[in-house]
Amino acid sequence: xxxxxxxxxxxxxxxxxxxxxxxxxxxxxxxxxxxxxxxxxxxxxxxxxxxxxxxxxxxxxxxxxxxxxxxxxxxxxxxxxxxxxxxxxxxxxxxxxxxxxxxxxxxxxxxxxxxxxxxxxxxxxxxxxxxxxxxxxxxxxxxxxxxxxxxxxxxxxxxxxxxxxxxxxxxxxxxxxxxxxxxxxxxxxxxxxxxxxxxxxxxxxxxxxxxxxxxxxxxxxxxxxxxxxxxxxxxxxxxxxxxxxxxxxxxxxxxxxxxxxxxxxxxxxxxxxxxxxxxxxxxxxxxxxxxxxxxxxxxxxxxxxxxxxxxxxxxxxxxxxxxxxxxxxxxxxxxxxx
Length: 338
Hints:
single chain; alpha/beta; four-stranded mixed β-sheet; 24% strand
């Protein structure tokens, strides 16, 4: 037997407010047809003014903990992946820990953007395999709607993003049969910082020739809104995600045809379709949620995981592969028996 980790509980939460492409037509110079053709997105969820990222994470976390069949006090650690924390500091994990009512356990915020959830899964897996932790709460949660340029100038990025949260509980397990028992099989993590400014949020920050991390000039120039080189992102996303999956499966001695379900990051339906086409993955094995949620960054994979469970597409014992690509550039892949 070998000590490993497995997913024991899954939860998610999205705001009630549905924002359709037709709603965005009233804010930006765009159309439902234009958005669907380029992204596959039909609608997304946006929060109200009084909701924070840790609020979304709390509801997803409670559901995941209940689904895992444990008490919240059984948690040994919280790992929170987000690029949209409640505040610059402290981390969103601190606010979530307080709202959950589990003082004393460590919290860790990670900033790997769209790849954040897979990074968090890998970190949790390593802590559990070390024997130091038995149950770790892993969250991906984002509120993008409060940070988007909703003017006509912001349409290329503003139409892409939504709000939401997904959470899992990862627990220690003894693996007797590496091919049949539920556990995290392998993870690959990557980054190439030379592409950092192809998809980024310039300000506020200390990387400016200014005495202040935020000033009026920065706001006037719109540097507090996300910026993206879409063509460069698309090409690299398809290339890096496919390479990572190929290497991961080769190292794990798993064939693509043996994988029951693919849960990819939901950035653009065209990226996932191209990825599946290149790798010869049947359409029915790829579970997408971008149509109804948009890009929720660190939350897309756990949101999709929970929806797949609820729809009967993901069942215990299935072999699952996930891959993500995002700002940094960062990319990652994970193989696990659910």
